[in-house]
Each structure stands twice: as C-alpha cells, then as structure tokens.
Amino acid sequence: MDESYSNLPSSHLLGSVPAVVNEGTNSTTHEVPEANMRIFPPNNGEGGSGRGYQSLGSPTEGFEQQPANNWKGVFSISSYTQYFNVDTDIVINRLISSLFPIDGNFFSKIDSNPDLYGAIWISTTLVFLFALLGNYATYLIEKHSDSSTSWSFDISYVNVAAGVVYGYAIVVPLAFYFLFQYMGSNPSLIRFWCMWGYSLFIFVPCAFLLLIPVEILRWIIILLAGTASSSFVALNLKSYMEAGDLTIMAVASFFLQLALAIFIKVWFFP
Q: What is the pLDDT of residues 121-172, one digit of tens each?
C-alpha cells in the first residue's frame, strides 16, 4: 500500500479503534478566578460615603459587633463575659479589701478589671445563709423558750432573702448610677454593681455570729457589721465623686446600707 494513505485519520471508519490520547501530558490546568461577592444594594447613598458595592470580606459598620455600652449590648450575654474573667486570687483580694473600709480605694483596685462574679457569688451565698440560719435561729429561740413546741422550716425566708439581697444589689447601684448622671457626673454602672456587691461580704461571717443566743450581743454584731459595710460604700463613693456637692450621696448610701443591716437583724434573726 502506498505510504501516503497510511497517514490518513481512520477514527471515523467503521470498526476502527481510536488512538489513546495521553491526558497526563496534554492536560491543561484551568484556574478559577477568585469570587468577589458584593453586597447589594451599593452603599453610595446618603451620607456621601461613595463607597459603591461593598465586599463581603470587609463588612461595613452595620455588621460590626455591637459594643456593650449601647442598649443592644446590654441584652447580649456575650457582652458580660469579660466581667467574669477573674481568678481566685483577685476575688480573694477584693473580699479582703471589703473588710477594711478605711482605705476607700476600692475603685482604683477594680478600675482595670471590674467583675460581677464576686457580686453574684456573695449575693447568692447570702440568700441561702439568711434563709437557712434565720430558720435555725428561730428554732433555737423556740426550743429555748419551750422545748416541747413543734417547729417547721419557714420557706418564706428564701423568698424574702432573695428579694431583699438581689433587689438591693441590683436596684440601689442602678439608682445611684442614674442620680450621678443627673448630677452631671460620669459613673460606671458595672463598677457600682461590683463595689456594692463586695460591700455585702461582711454579712457572710456576720450571719453565723448572729446565731449566738444573746440578744444584746447580736445587736452589737449587726451594728458593727452594718457600720463597716456602710463606711466601705460611703468612703469609696466619696472618692469616686468628681464634685464636692455630691457628698449628700455618700451620706445617703451610708444610711441606706445601715438600714439594710438592721432589716437583716429584725427579719431573719429576731
């Protein structure tokens, strides 16, 4: 056969076998261009920013995380995680500082890292202590007066203790926060909650001492504890003031804290 006909393509002929193409050597790499998604509509309207379409890689201010100081941050749990980032040594240090009211520098100690962990822990501990030890004190009094009398646990102590302790630790600092703002000062609500919460720690050991069955001694204990706690609040609040005409606020906080101590004695340890 003539060699010129042997070079003709034969893949279209019936019964012919097509040649195997080595794809490994002739393959071509196709690169897919990176997708660049855009936010619609473009941000070139009001405000004169003129930025046009915005890339999803760089979100606008509307998609940024809401800070903790606006109202959306107030109702976000993640906004408060930083106020529980404390270790045991820091909490113990602040508990000890709350027992020495003369210093009046508690705000300077918590300025870089105020916490809510200690305030919540102290308040919850006091709720259970007042309910439990208050009932036990009533039991001791009734058994001392008449050993044959029957006694039952009064569950209402738990409700009253929770309402008084949590209500005081939340509402009172909040009220002083708004009063300070009204007076032209620039307070911090988190620091107020922290300071007032630690001011209640002295009532934890005081609750155990109030089980002593001597009435005059119990009054001395609660008045000493109330005075120490009131002085701690008033002196620290006074050091936080920016103007001298706010001294009346420190005096009001002193007597308010002392009234809480007297209520604890009268209601839970009669």
A: 999 999 999 999 999 988 887 777 776 777 788 888 999 999 999 999 999 9
Contact 169, 123 (CB under 8 A): yes
pLDDT in tens, 246-255: 788 889 999 9
Residues 6 or more apart whose Cβ sits within 8 Å of residue 190: 83, 114, 116
Query: In 115-144, which positions are buried (b, 16+ CB within 10 angstroms) versus exposed (e)?
Result: bbbbbbebbebbbebbbbbbbebbeeeeee
At 16, list the tokens: 């012919």
HSE-up of residue 8 (Cα within 13 Å, Cβ side) = 10
Calpha distance 99→83 (Å, rounded): 22
C-alpha 59/C-alpha 108 separation (Å) is 38
| Global pTM exceeds 0.85 | no
Which residues neighbour 192 within 8 Å (Cβ) at sequence distance 6 or greater?
173, 174, 176, 177
C-alpha distances in angstroms, 142 versus 82, 146, 155, 219? 48, 6, 17, 19
The dihedrals phi and psi of 66, each to the nearest 5 degrees, come to -70, 130
Q: What angle (nearest 5°) sits at the alpha carbon of residue 124, between those of residues 252 and 134? A: 85
Spell out the alpha helix ranges (H) of the chain.
3-6, 23-26, 71-74, 88-98, 106-109, 117-145, 156-182, 189-199, 203-209, 215-240, 247-268
d(CA 32, CA 68): 42
Spatial distance between the Cα atoms of 175 and 180, rounded to a whole number of angstroms: 9
The number of beta carbons lying within 10 Å of the beta carbon of residue 257 is: 23
Rounded CA gap, 44 and 52, in Å? 5
Residue 200 CB neighbour total at 10 angstroms: 25
For residues 199 and 233, the answer to whether their CB atoms sit within 8 Å is yes
